[in-house]
Amino acid sequence: MAAGGDGVAQQAELRRIEGNACFKKARLGAAIDCYTEAIALCPNVAVYWMNRALCHFRRKEWAKVEADSRRALALDATLVKGHYLLGCALLDKEDFGLAIKEFEKALNLLKSENSTDKMAEDVWQVLAKAKYLDWEKHSTERVWRIQSLKEACESALQEHHFLSGTLVEDSDGSSNEYSEQIKLLSEVFSKATLADTPVDVPDYLCCQITFEIFRDPVITPSGVTYERAVLLEHLDKVGNFDPVTREPLKEHQLVPNLAIKEAVQAYLKEHSWAYRLNC
């Protein structure tokens, strides 16, 4: 019985290897067939479901991506790519809230693994997109509700002053109680929409190279803050010097700028539209 089981597992693994070869050659249909055979032989191996999900991802077959990534995650919840692919499928369905949760799970797993893989940047990009789209969707709803409430309040205020005979301006043209209350009401509702009004992000929250809002800011001995990945690329491809001050600089001299990172997180929490800078 055990020997037979080993044989089935070996056959499944051979199908996976064959599928990988097809995937590398962009023969996605053939790769899907191979992974499907592997799944039929050993349905409890998460990587087979994951590999097939990747094929569907390349084809943008989002319903199949969701189904296979969910099966893979049910077998192994630590699969970073599983959460990433599921998030992408949910993003396509415009289920932004659940997509955000999956992308955050992927980032947390990468962080716990201390990974510097490019995967982290890919996940951050789609997370930023999901958060911006989520803000955009709910912002439209919030603005509409606030405007409707403002109009209802103005109508009620006008009716109150009409019935009390205080709707007309004073004879000298000065503002009366009604006009003052309308002005105050307008100010209150204007403040209520401030968080949903895009403005320029403060310069100190953005990298001087990319002009994008910081995700992982580091400070150099010269006192200049940059996005870590961008600065490391500069040091690797351009030279070991600070891009702004031109002073000599090595990777080990970089220090995380925790104050700026916290400031960015606080800003994004209050102004989710700013994620558009990283989409």
TrEMBL record:
InterPro entries: CHIP_RING-Ubox (IPR045202), TPR-like_helical_dom_sf (IPR011990), TPR_rpt (IPR019734), Ubox_domain (IPR003613), Znf_RING/FYVE/PHD (IPR013083). GO terms for biological process: protein ubiquitination. Residues 200-274 form the U-box domain. Coiled coil: none annotated. The keyword Mitochondrion does not apply. GO terms for molecular function: transferase activity. This is E3 ubiquitin-protein ligase CHIP. The lineage of its organism: Eukaryota, Viridiplantae, Streptophyta, Embryophyta, Tracheophyta.
